[in-house]
Inverse folding.
């Protein structure tokens, strides 16, 4: 029995296997790098959209810190990006979590300028009902842009930081009050935190570049879930809240205002 052809065939198969594994490894490494770069560019674009034009001169993804203030910022840890123009502070951009969105937590980007005004607010991730609560998404409506840009902790006064149904100045959506109500509260609480800690937040040493995530694709509810959610949201509109907010809302405050 001749073994040479068998050995040759085995060698050829082995060579192809090694080459295939190597090709997959190289492709994977190249793809990972491109994915990371795309994610970085997506986040930078979002940050640049909510700071004054032309003032983003540093790398805010590297000039970042993390804090743990769940009572005001929603999550156990919150990333904060610092935007600077040379030595001049331009904006603090926080990623608070709205824990009590109608269909689950909502991740935000909130830009606070050195004078205490909002450079802008954007939604990074949500699971709100299509056609109702999802109007918080800038791709669906301009609500999140026109309602918050230029506002501050004193403009409007604290007692007016509510949706109109609750005696405030912020628009709600027809058939959907829970979602905008929760976002208004979260943005106010974020402003409160920055007002208390601004100097320290700019001065704290940076952690360096991290894995900044671009917004996830919003969850699309099933037609049955959408119909039921629409009914539940409409029912919620029958129970306005009127409590004034001179200080940040606590869990107890929210429970009393539901």
């Amino acid at each position: 029995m001749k073994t040479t052809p068998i050995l040759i065939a085995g060698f050829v198969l082995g060579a192809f296997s090694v080459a295939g594994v190597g090709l997959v490894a190289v492709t994977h490494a190249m793809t990972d790098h491109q994915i990371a770069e795309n994610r970085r560019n997506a986040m930078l674009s979002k940050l640049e959209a909510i700071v004054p034009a032309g003032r983003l001169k540093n790398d805010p993804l590297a000039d970042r810190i993390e804090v743990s203030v769940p009572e005001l910022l929603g999550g156990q840890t919150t990333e904060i990006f610092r935007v600077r123009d040379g030595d001049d502070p331009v904006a603090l951009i926080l990623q608070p979590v709205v824990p009590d969105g109608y269909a689950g937590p909502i991740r935000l980007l909130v830009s606070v300028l050195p004078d205490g005004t909002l450079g802008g607010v954007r939604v990074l991730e949500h699971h709100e009902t299509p056609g109702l609560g999802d109007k918080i998404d800038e791709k669906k409506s301009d609500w999140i842009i026109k309602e918050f840009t230029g506002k501050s902790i004193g403009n409007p006064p604290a007692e007016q930081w509510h949706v109109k149904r609750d005696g405030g100045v912020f628009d709600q959506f027809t058939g959907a009050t829970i979602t905008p109500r929760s976002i208004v509260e979260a943005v106010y609480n974020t402003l409160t935190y920055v007002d208390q800690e601004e100097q320290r937040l700019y001065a704290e040493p940076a952690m360096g570049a991290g894995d900044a995530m671009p917004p996830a694709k919003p969850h699309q509810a099933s037609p049955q879930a959408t119909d039921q959610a629409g009914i539940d949201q409409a029912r919620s509109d029958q129970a306005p809240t009127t409590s004034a907010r001179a200080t940040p809302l606590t869990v107890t405050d929210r429970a009393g205002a539901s």
Q: What stands out?
A: The chain is about 40% helix and 15% strand. The beta strands are 64-67, 78-85, 88-94, 97-98, 106-112, 118-125.
